[in-house]
Specification:
The protein has helices spanning 4-28, 31-89, 94-106, 110-142, 150-159, 169-177, 181-187, 190-205, 209-239, 251-254, 258-287, 289-300, 303-325, 330-357, 359-367, 375-387, 391-400, 404-418, 422-429, 432-458. By secondary structure, it is an all-alpha fold. It has one domain (4-458). The chain is globular, with a radius of gyration of 22 Å.
Length: 459
C-alpha cells in the first residue's frame, strides 16, 4: 500500500505526457515545436556548462602556468589513459534507458521502467568495476612509454578510480527521460568546482603533479556520487517503491532486442570518442609529454563547440525517441534534424571565425606564452569540431530509429581509416599532423552519418 501513492503519481505523470503528445503538442509537433523543445533542454544544460566553463578556464589558467608544458602533459596523459581504458571497457546504458524508457513512459508502465533502470545500473556498474581493474593492471606497461614521472607512476593505479566519474549514464539517461535537464545542468558544476578548489589548494601548498592527480580524482568521485544521488532521488520521487521492489518480469521480454541495441550503441559511443581519447596518448608516445600538454591545451579550446554538440545530441535523442515512440514517422524526424543541425552550425560560425583570426592570443590567454606552439593545431581542431556538430544529432536519430549499428559502422570505418595514420602524420608534420588527422576523420565520419540517417529515416 505504501507504494500506491508514488505509483499513482507516476501514472498521472505518464498520462499527462501522453495527453501532451496527443493534445497540446498538436500545435508544437511541427518541426519548429520539436526544435524549440530540444534547444530549451540544451539551454538548461548549457546554463550549468557556462558556469562549469568559467571554473574550468580558471583551473586551466592556474594549472598550466604552475606546471608548465611537460608536467601539465603528464597530468593530461594520466587522465587520458584512464578515460581511454574506461571508454573502451565501460558499458553505459543511457541510450537504452531513453529509448525503451520512452515506450514504458508512454504506456505508464512504472514497473517495467523500474526493471529497466535496475538492469541498466547493474550492467553499467559491472562494466565500471572491470574498467577500474583493467586501468590499474596496465599502468606498469603503459606509463614508462608516456614519460610519466615516478610519482605519477606510483599514484596512477589509485587514479584508476577516476573511471567512476564516467560511470553514471543510467541516472543521466533517466533524468533525460524525465526532462530534468535543469538537474543535468547543475551536475555539470560538480567536477570543475572540485578541480578548481583542488588546484587552488595544491598551488597554495606548493605541491606537484601527484597532488593535482589527487584533486582530479576527488572531482571524478564527486561527479559519480552527485549524478547517482540525483537519479535515485528522481526515481524515488517518480516511481516510489517500484524502483526498489518492481513486479517480477524479465527485462529482455519487456524490451525486445535490448542486448543487441546496447551492444551496438555502446560500440558506437566507444568508436565515436576513441580518437579524441587516444590522440593525446599517441602524441605522448611519439613526441613526449610536453607535446601532449600542448595538444591538450589546443584541444581544450574546442570544448566550446564539443560540449554543446554532445549535449545537443543527448537532448535531441530524448526528443527524437519520443517522435519514434509516438509514431510520427521519418519525415518528422528529418525535418527536426535538419533544423537542429542548421542552427548548431550557424551558431558555431562566429566561434570558428574568432579562433581562426586570434589563435595566438587565445592560447596565451588560456595557458600562457609557454604553450604558444599550440596555436596552429588549435585552428585545425576547432575546424574539425565544427564539422563534427553534424554527428551527435545524426547518431541520436539513428539510435532513436533503432539502428545504432549504422552509426557504429560510420565511426568504425573513419577511425580505422585515419587513426592508424596519426603516428606517421606526427613524424611528418609535427603536432599539426594531429590537426590534419582530426579534420579528415571529421569530414568522412560526419558525411557518412548524414547519408545514413537520411536513407534510414526515408524508409
Amino acid at each position: 500500500m505504501s507504494d500506491s501513492k508514488p505509483l499513482k503519481a507516476h501514472h498521472e505523470w505518464a498520462e499527462a505526457r501522453r495527453a501532451d503528445i496527443s493534445g497540446e503538442r498538436m500545435v508544437t509537433d511541427r518541426p519548429e515545436g520539436r526544435v524549440r523543445r530540444i534547444f530549451a533542454s540544451l539551454g538548461l544544460v548549457l546554463g550549468g556548462k557556462a558556469g562549469a566553463g568559467i571554473m574550468s578556464l580558471g583551473y586551466l589558467l592556474l594549472a598550466t602556468r604552475y606546471l608548465g608544458p611537460k608536467d601539465y602533459g603528464v597530468l593530461v596523459l594520466v587522465h587520458a589513459y584512464v578515460t581511454t581504458v574506461c571508454g573502451v571497457i565501460e558499458f553505459p546504458s543511457w541510450q537504452a534507458i531513453v529509448r525503451y524508457g520512452a515506450e514504458a513512459d508512454r504506456d505508464g508502465q512504472a514497473h517495467r521502467l523500474s526493471r529497466l533502470l535496475r538492469f541498466g545500473a547493474k550492467v553499467e556498474l559491472a562494466g565500471g568495476v572491470l574498467a577500474v581493474i583493467s586501468a590499474m593492471a596496465l599502468v606498469p606497461f603503459v606509463g614508462p612509454h608516456l614519460g610519466w614521472s615516478p610519482k605519477a607512476m606510483a599514484f596512477a593505479p589509485y587514479y584508476a578510480f577516476a573511471v567512476l566519474g564516467s560511470v553514471r549514464s543510467t541516472p543521466s539517461g533517466y533524468l533525460q527521460l524525465c526532462g530534468r535537464f535543469d538537474l543535468l545542468g547543475l551536475h555539470n558544476l560538480v567536477q570543475p568546482a572540485v578541480r578548481l578548489i583542488g588546484t587552488l589548494v595544491v598551488i597554495a601548498c606548493g605541491w606537484g603533479v601527484k597532488s593535482f592527480l589527487f584533486a582530479w580524482l576527488l572531482a571524478a568521485l564527486a561527479e559519480f556520487a552527485a549524478m547517482w544521488g540525483l537519479g535515485l532521488w528522481m526515481a524515488a520521487k517518480r516511481l516510489g517503491g517500484a524502483i526498489v521492489r518492481p513486479e517480477p518480469g524479465r527485462v529482455t521480454d519487456d524490451n525486445t532486442g535490448i542486448w543487441r541495441f546496447m551492444l551496438a550503441s555502446n560500440a558506437d559511443v566507444t568508436l565515436g570518442d576513441l580518437t579524441g581519447r587516444v590522440a593525446p596518448l599517441v602524441i605522448g608516445w611519439v613526441m613526449g609529454p610536453a607535446m601532449a600538454g600542448l595538444f591538450a591545451v589546443a584541444q581544450r579550446a574546442t570544448v566550446i563547440l564539443a560540449q554543446p554538440a554532445q549535449i545537443l545530441g543527448n537532448a535531441s535523442y530524448a526528443e527524437l525517441a519520443h517522435i519514434v515512440a509516438g509514431g510520427y514517422g521519418g519525415r518528422a524526424l528529418r525535418q527536426t534534424l535538419l533544423k537542429v543541425v542548421g542552427i548548431a552550425v550557424l551558431a558555431a560560425f562566429p566561434v570558428v571565425l574568432i579562433v581562426g583570426v586570434f589563435p595566438a592570443e587565445i592560447i596565451r590567454l588560456m595557458a600562457g606564452p609557454a604553450f604558444g606552439a599550440a596555436a596552429g593545431v588549435m585552428i585545425a581542431l576547432v575546424a574539425a569540431r565544427a564539422v563534427s556538430l553534424i554527428g551527435p544529432p545524426c547518431t541520436s536519430a539513428l539510435t532513436a530509429l533503432g539502428h545504432p549499428a549504422r552509426s557504429m559502422w560510420a565511426n568504425l570505418l573513419s577511425s580505422f581509416a585515419f587513426l592508424p595514420l596519426l603516428p606517421w602524420l606526427l613524424v611528418t608534420f609535427g603536432l599539426m599532423g594531429a590537426g590534419i588527422q582530426a579534420v579528415a576523420q571529421a569530414v568522412v565520419a560526419n558525411g557518412l552519418l548524414a547519408v545514413l540517417v537520411w536513407r534510414t529515416s526515408g524508409r
